[in-house]
Amino acid sequence: MARSIKRRSPHSVIPGFGLSLGFSILYLSLIVLIPLSGVFFKSAQLGWHGLLDVIFAPRVLAALRLSFGAALVGALINAVFGTLVAWVFVRYRFPGKRLFDALIDLPFALPTAVAGIALTALYSTNGWIGQYLDALGVKVAYTPLGVIVACTFIGLPFVVRTVQPVLEDAEKELEEAAASLGASRLQTVTRVILPAVLPAVLTGFALAFARAAGEYGSIIFIAGNMPMVSEIAPLLIIIKLEEFDYAGASAVAMAMLSLSLALLLLINGLQVWARRRTANVR
Amino acid sequence: MSTLSTVPLQDPPSLPPEFRPQGPLIRRNSAVTESAWVQWLLVATALLFLLGFLLLPLVSVFTEALRHGWKVYLDAISEPDARSAIGMTLLTAAIAVPFNVAFGLAAAWAITKFEFRGKTLLVSLIDLPFSVSPVVAGLIYILVFGRNGWFGPWLFDHDIRIVFAIPGIVIATMFVTFPFIARELIPLMQEQGTDHEQAALSLGASGWQTFRRVTLPNIKWALLYGVLLCTARAMGEFGAVSVVSGHIRGQTDTMPLHVEILYNEYQFAGAFAVASLLAIFALVTLALKSYLEWRHGDELAATRRH
């Protein structure tokens, strides 16, 4: 409410504008902006050709492809199953619901290194789940599949937590209207409910994707880290740092930052499109 | 007697089977819900997914940690390197979190109580650390404070160590936990507006008094919620800290780094023992978080209310 009244800072009765904004910007610059600009300056030292040479080296390309590809697949898995989990939590009653609801945020709270060794123990060939998958001929740990498992784990809460409130607020009347107009339940779900939650699903997808693309801790234990096969881009940055190739490490970091930014802009565009589409439906 | 008392509870024998009530008298409208078996199938699929990706990994941390018995477990968490790692983790969180609290309060105050140009930009810049890989977060401090970095030579001449030492670990942790508190406070303070503060100021309270006695009580649960998430991440951060710590055992090892070292040395029981401590921290965090959402949901930002 108060926001609708436009107020220029000098005339506000509330004090502390200079202090609070000044401190925020100082701290933001010191901790985030100035250090982050180091990546640009350092990789600029390589020159345009040097930068492209580093990024398009086969090993770097393979690592970038794995990091972003696995993050994409993980985010897709989460978009489908996260929406399902949110639906089940909001609409149905079953024993243990509160416990599982609280557990959803575990990937936020559990340190990534712990998640990494736990997933490795679980999905290795003698683990609780891995032994059955191994019997089917599927190897998860120490393969790119393991990277996808870790990406799915790390992004799990995002879709559930963005879709859940939207489903809770969804008006049941719309579904009743659809049903009374002769829509089957499946039609109601696909043409009334899904379009309404689609923007939230996309938001959750984008967050899960961004998180998983840069993920390191939970992946390195399960990935096996074979160059060209199961080596992720953040690990390559660490390897280059250990070789004191700071410019090379910065170049890989630049590639990761630009790719993330481009994909987030794309997803943002998709969201605008999805919102406009739902607006038309209504 | 006993047969007499049970008779009225049974269905009247005259009623044909097709007229006997089946299931609950008030049925849910089948047009706006699914048939029982579809519901059952969806719940089962969702729970199976959560079992494989959440519950079993969590359980396996504890079973792996206790595989060789309590003696091994207690030894692993009480040896000197583990104790120093626990101390480092607590110290890091104890420094990084208050800084981010100060920033979160200042940023939320500036953003929600005033109108100024570039506000949207500031809000999106606050979220920036969430979309930066933790490893890149570590890398940037090597570029700034490392031996060949911007301030590296000067720091080296004055014998000040930042990277591969405690300050580097703390700063990297500050970076990755940077947005947590501001993100909890901004939406809530936006909703609350400025009426209370204006009332207090018009009654003669000073700026600090208004902040301490009016604003702070209004946002205390959201602040606590943010501190909780921030602390959990600060204690668990791995990628960024791994880059700047230099892995000096017993000196610059935090708990997650100690887990990695033990694991890479094939000391699985020890690695999982230290990991189980972190998992307990995480479970306590989740429990407190659920409690705050349940008990003080009205005083958290709208997206946190269940």
TrEMBL record, chain A:
Signal peptide: none annotated. It comes from the Bacteria. The chain crosses the membrane at residues 12-41, 61-90, 102-122, 142-160, 192-210, 216-239, 251-274. Keywords: Membrane, Sulfate transport, Transmembrane, Transmembrane helix, Transport. It is found in: Cell membrane. Residues 64-267 form the ABC transmembrane type-1 domain. It is a multi-pass membrane protein. CDD domains: TM_PBP2. InterPro entries: CysT_permease, MetI-like, MetI-like_sf, Sulph_transpt2. GO terms for cellular component: plasma membrane. GO terms for molecular function: ABC-type sulfate transporter activity. It holds the Pfam family BPD_transp_1. The complex is composed of two ATP-binding proteins (CysA), two transmembrane proteins (CysT and CysW) and a solute-binding protein (CysP). Part of the ABC transporter complex CysAWTP (TC 3.A.1.6.1) involved in sulfate/thiosulfate import. Probably responsible for the translocation of the substrate across the membrane. Part of the ABC transporter complex (TC 3.A.1.6.1) involved in sulfate/thiosulfate import. Belongs to the binding-protein-dependent transport system permease family. CysTW subfamily. This is Sulfate transport system permease protein CysT. It comes from Solimonas terrae. The lineage of its organism: Bacteria, Pseudomonadati, Pseudomonadota, Gammaproteobacteria, Nevskiales. The gene is cysT.
TrEMBL record, chain B:
GO terms for molecular function: ABC-type sulfate transporter activity. CDD domains: TM_PBP2. It is found in: Cell inner membrane. Keywords: Cell inner membrane, Cell membrane, Membrane, Sulfate transport, Transmembrane, Transmembrane helix, Transport. InterPro entries: CysW_permease, MetI-like, MetI-like_sf, Sulph_transpt2. Residues 1-22 are annotated as: Disordered. Pfam families: BPD_transp_1. Its main location: membrane. Residues 10-19 have a biased composition (Pro residues). GO terms for cellular component: plasma membrane. The chain crosses the membrane at residues 37-62, 82-109, 121-142, 162-182, 222-248, 268-288. Residues 86-289 form the ABC transmembrane type-1 domain. It is a multi-pass membrane protein. It comes from the Bacteria. The complex is composed of two ATP-binding proteins (CysA), two transmembrane proteins (CysT and CysW) and a solute-binding protein (CysP). Part of the ABC transporter complex CysAWTP (TC 3.A.1.6.1) involved in sulfate/thiosulfate import. Probably responsible for the translocation of the substrate across the membrane. This is Sulfate transport system permease protein CysW. It comes from Solimonas terrae. The gene is cysW.
